[in-house]
Fold these 4 entries.
Entry 1:
Amino acid sequence: MSTPDPGELDRRIAELQRQVQALRARVEWLEQSLTPRLDHPVDRATVREKVAYDWQA
């Protein structure tokens, strides 16, 4: 078995590092998109008013 060319090894390592960075960015994006969004206070107040109105009807 022959020894791989050092330039080829450097190129492969650089490509693998690029892929790892891309995968980390994708995982971070997925984690952020899966976190529940907080309700806006105005939305919560509107829902409370609607529930009170429906209950009175």
Entry 2:
Amino acid sequence: MKNQDTSDGNAPKSSPEERFVEFQYTEMKDLTKHFLTLIAGTLVLTLTVAEKLLGASASETAKTLLGYSWASLILAFILAGIGLTGIFFAALAARERAVFGFAANYQKIARPSYIAVDLAGILYVVALTLLVAVGILRLHVS
């Protein structure tokens, strides 16, 4: 379905919808899938080594910070999953011009999806910062 207008001698031009599906959707899908794996791995790792992170005489502050870190990781995972789902529906709308039989604008679907993935990234950094704070507290208590 490419536009075959090559009057200026350049390669055929594609529509914004086709470019979105061919590049942005593909790249965001791969990026978000890897990001979901990273978030899940970080969560599993910190859950596994929580006792070592906190130590035998962990302060309430360290426990609270670790709890907030886990909450941030879980929320980041959820937001990244929502973003991935939204990007899929945006690509569906771009290709089919409809989602579930309703006319849909792919840009209106993609925007909140990008925001969800961005917020997931911010929460991931917050979670890592909280983990560093737990480690610093552990060093000062020991």
Entry 3:
Amino acid sequence: MLKISKLVLRKLRNSEYFQYMSDFKSLIELITPAVVHSEEEFTTFNAVFTKLDEELRVDKGSVLTEQLQALDLGRDNTWRAIDARIAATLLCPVEKEVEAAKRLERVFDLYGDIRKISYNEETAALSNLIGDLEEEANAGFVTTTGLTKWVNALKDQNIAFKAKQNERDTEIANKNSGNVKAVRIKLDPVYELIVERVNAMVSLNMVTPEIENFIKELNQKIKTIETTLAAREGRRDDGEEEPTEPEVD
């Protein structure tokens, strides 16, 4: 007799958990809770699921992230403009400016393309690069190539980015990150109770074709999740992946 397969819910990341419960909810609604004698349980399930949805919307990130991305794009563009200005100056007819550009090019080459590294690494690299450009040995070359205002702008942009990043990190740190876990703990037993009710109907030979189809569809979703979990465990054992969301204990 085909029953609903066992799924270890605590192994699911929040996004996976929400998607599975959403699919489960849709399948129950399709056959109606009355068919599986779970009207009361499903009412409770719906209420807790709604709470889960609300908590996950809060947990998805900070509204400051978009501002942070804009600030990062700004400093990237300024860095790119300075780099392009140095490259263009290397081709100019004024020997003094060419020599200054060569010196600055060497400084830039030490840091590579800072746009391709992480936020924290880029902030540190820009701070060091700007510090190098402000040194007495290089400040004259910056002036000669007409880059003083651009370097100052890059410095201001980098400081503004770091300040916004600190603001965002503080906001995220102050969120009650345990809320999603608390809701999952409430939703799990309701889900398990409905699954138990359906499996009991199988044992009692009370299964209709629509219930059988419900079980088949749900088991297919469970199989897909188990394949994902197995692949993740394999990558983790090989040291190739770190979890982006903790499992729920």
Entry 4:
Amino acid sequence: MRAKQKFVALDEYEEGAVIQGLMLLRNEELESGGSDDFIGDLIIKVIRSPQRKARARDEAR
């Protein structure tokens, strides 16, 4: 059985907001003495995700 994947298109501002939110969560986890491995891996995954060329929605045909 194949794992289900979700793809979300983010512009540079949305990507920055996601990374900033994950960093805040990671910092809270570190302050409480927890492990930040999962969150750190997730941050790296978001940063390294490939970019795809998107079609312009308002483009005339």
